[in-house]
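seq/struct pair 1
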Amino acid sequence: MNLLVALAFYASTVFGFTNHLLILSVIPLFFQRNTALKFSESDFKFIFFLLFIVIFSLVNNIIGFFILDDLSFPFFVFTVFSFLFYKLINEKVLFYLLLFILVEIFCALIQYNLGVSSFFSSSEKYFEFSNDALYFKKSAGLSASSSVLAYKVLIAFFIVDFLFKDRKIKFFLYVALIVGLYVTFNRTSIVAAISFFIIAHRAYLKALFFNRRGVYLLPLFLVLVLFLTPSAYSVFINEFSRGNADAGVDLSYRTLVWGHYIDFISNNLMLGNFSYKYISELNVAGYGQHNFHAHNSILMIFSSHGVLISILFLFLLASKINNNNLKYIIPIFIYSFAQYGVFWGLSFLDILLAFFLMTNSRITLNRND
């Protein structure tokens, strides 16, 4: 059962498949006796308030039905399923997901050495490497794009931290995942992964630099930073600016898209797009006339739902953040600040967000598991 659940979750992120496959993850429940999803009182309270917000969004949908010409499915309903499906995840499901991600990183490494972005030449994201900048040498593994694999690598960092205590195992796995960040070179995922390490090891960093040894270590660290800064900064800017250091850090077309979405939100403050997903058609240099989502999950939810529903939902999520899950939640939102990461309704990342928000206990795996 656990393998089938993990396969359904993971397959939804693979090239050629969609989030609809997530529905298959519940099928194993019908073939095992005495199997049921167990919810705590805290879970029921959370889902009750979530349903309350969903009802608001459905009322918003009804208002929009009489106003909008182009209607889509009321996607926010699926958010409830994300906060139900997370109960299918246990330590074995996480372990299988980690294995799948490691296999995909290996595939991406092969692609990187072959000089292609994907095994699937039919993919619109397929290209052959022709530029020395890492931004133009990104492998997608088995995913539709390198950004999809990159967020799975980010999730894999969380899984390793969540499952394992053995430092040697964690170090080995982290090295493999860093390779995954390198061959995908998604700048947002890299920043999110760095934030994860800082938050996850903040106690160690504090003990290292702010004790008696820190009297010597902190100045030494600062000297090394000052010594390496000129060359390191040059390399950093060159890679993060797509190989054009003179242009500074390049945010692609995001500033234009973000500006449009901010304008839309300011003009439709209360009801947004009547809780229908807002996707705007924009004319962007290099892309032509094209449909763009906001490349920012917060802008997506505010543009779709308006201020009231969005704030209620975000406050509900914030109520579940604690010291145990902070190191997972903040990086997910950092990633989602420059990508449309969470808030699809029902998606792999939405389910993992629900899992890390709602699961307080630490699960560990021994070497023999």
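seq/struct pair 2
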Amino acid sequence: MTKEPFDFKRLFVIAKTQLNYSEDEFLNSSFKRVVDLVNTLNQMLSEENNEEGPINNEGYKEVVVNIADAPF
């Protein structure tokens, strides 16, 4: 097995803060269900980051900005 096992505390924090689970909901859910939801959340966040544009060599995202869109 190449992956490290899930840290229970970390999984609880993610379920509570990102999935809005109560402690009872978390404890009554199956481990597989919570892990599947966390993986789906990670996938969605990854897709959102990819839509914002490519990152150049310096680590900055290149964005085209129109001066007419700037609030003055």
